[in-house]
Amino acid sequence: MLELAHDIGLLFEHWNLSLPLRHALLLYVAKVGNTSDIDRFIDSVAEPLSTHKEDTMTIAQQLHQRGFEQGMQEGMQEGMQEGMKSSALNIARQLLQNEMELELVQRVTQLSDEEMAQLLRSEQK
């Protein structure tokens, strides 16, 4: 999509689009076009603009903020899942040390067969 960014900027200049429409189009193109380098994409779109260059850069900042917020949310979610998995492993370890049956420990903690096998191997060391 990066190779079309300059042409998109020229079209924005020619059509004199409203800011909300420009924002929607940039967001759509960046998302659907699977743009990997959003900075270069926005710079290339803004380059041919004689007007509304600042507005386009503001849109870029909004896109960055959205990406940052999405990344933070995904990171928090991943961290929570890792924390829950760690807790389940600790609980399973304690239950096994208190001689609870293996199947019951697995059912209670919802650990997979592989996770239980790894836990048992680590406990034997």
From TrEMBL:
Its domain of life reads: Bacteria
Q: Which GO terms describe its biological process?
A: DNA recombination
Any GO molecular function: double-stranded DNA endonuclease activity
InterPro entries in the cross-refs: Rpn/YhgA-like_nuclease (IPR051699)
The name this protein carries in UniProt is Transposase
Q: Which organism is it from?
A: Pectobacterium parvum
